[in-house]
Design brief:
- There is one protein chain.
- With 207 residues, the protein is of the alpha/beta class.
- The longest helix has 14 residues.
- The chain has one domain: Spore Coat Polysaccharide Biosynthesis Protein SpsA, Chain A (Alpha-Beta Complex), CATH 3.90.550.10.
């Protein structure tokens, strides 16, 4: 998923195209999956306006590798469904943020393995900080952080079940694929993510 426009990054360059060690972030992210399993077929979903820049990057860094490209929609759900439309056969689909270049091979493979066994595998990490729930009256209340996790990507699924989920409830307001999958009646299985697997969204993240 490469739909970012760099608003919070305060950059004219879309954040997935910014450089780390002189290489675009999106290249690092795709390479991690190809290292985890060279047979992976990558699909890049991005806005129409970014196609030209992406084609330059794809030609430079992935010559000879069959990476598919499609244009996303106005919402994340529409963009995911655009990518899923290119998945023809029943398979395992790992949906990953283009701006998470530090995902580990171990997390990728655990997510695939879980999806193969149980239908889903979603990367998460435990909370380190105390948390409070905000109330409408302006007050707040402490919550037990051991009852919560932070959700990352990849979020990996059986493609047939994920397509069914989006067909059933995909027009709702969801922030990730696990929520769509769950709302459709399927059970979400969790796997260990990593604190290194950050989503690069702000200048501080990039540093």
């Amino acid at each position: 998923m490469a739909g970012g426009v760099g608003t919070r990054m305060r950059s004219a360059t879309p954040k997935q195209f910014l450089l780390i060690e002189e290489v675009p972030i999106i290249v690092h992210s795709i390479r991690k999956f190809l290292i985890a399993d060279p047979s992976v077929e990558a699909i890049v979903v991005l806005p129409q306006a970014h196609l030209g820049e992406w084609e330059k990057i794809r030609t430079q860094y992935f010559s000879g590798i069959g990476i598919k490209t499609t244009v996303g929609g106005s919402t994340r759900s529409e963009s995911v469904q655009a990518g899923l439309a290119l998945v023809q056969d029943e398979s395992l689909v790992a949906i990953h943020d283009a701006v998470r270049p530090y995902v580990s091979k171990e997390t990728i493979n655990m997510a695939y393995h879980s999806a193969e066994q149980y239908g889903s595998g979603v990367a998460v990490v435990n909370l380190k900080d105390s948390i409070r729930e905000l109330r409408l009256d302006g007050a707040s209340e402490a919550r037990d952080r051991s009852n919560y996790v932070l959700v990352q990507t990849p979020q990996t699924f059986n493609s047939v079940k994920l397509k069914d989920s989006y067909d059933k409830v995909g027009d709702g307001v969801f922030t990730d694929d696990a929520s769509v999958y769950e709302a459709a009646g399927y059970s979400v299985r969790l796997v260990d993510g990593s604190y290194d697997n950050i989503k690069i969204t702000t200048p501080e993240d990039l540093k």
